[in-house]
What does this fold into?
Amino acid sequence: MMQPRLSSVIERRLLVNYRVAPDAAARLLPGPLRPQVVHGHAVAGICLLRLGGVRPAWAPGAFGLRSENAAHRIAVEWDGPDGVETGVYIPRRDTASRLTAWAGGRVFPGEHGRADFAVHEPPHRTRVAMAARDGSTRVDVTVEPADELRGSALFADLAEASRFFRAGSKGFSPTRSGDHLDGMELRTDAWHVEAGRIRSAASSFFDDPDRFPPGSATPDCALVMRDVRAGWRPLPAMAAHRAAPLAR
It folds into this structure.
């Protein structure tokens, strides 16, 4: 089935990034993916994404869907036909939208679980809490705006962080079949991120000692993107050498 390209507005994209022990990240990855290592650390995190106007690229904006979404991510690289490629592996996707949960993996790549979101965005603070309806995953983060990126062990400054995440625009996620990864690529000509300061970050995914032994996953920095028009392009499925189970 031909999967449509999607158009949207990224109303808010909050990236809460963790520095992770490379061996801990590698254990969660199916081949052919391997962790991207930055200053001795793997890079992982949570993307808390509110999309507006989501629709097939050919459809008028008035028909667009608005939804809250969350994705747990690990920055990865793999050997492509023209050399090393970069992107993210997404072991878990969640959405507040019943339609997105139904369409993910059917109409467009990326299977989603259902979740409930609580969002508070007063001036100078953003708090997003998410609880998966199957009880397996919870997130609660609070981020404040910052003039510049400070205290990160991953990135020297905002410009370096922006380049890193812009280059990781391809996302791959597991499927129930386990024999391949679904792929989707973010495309925008209006890329712009701002620095954030993490005030609190709790994630049942990163706080799970079976996945990440104590000290192997530490909140590092936050980035915020707002009101950016973006498209989403389906990618060819990637064969998974050792498929990780879909987190549900």
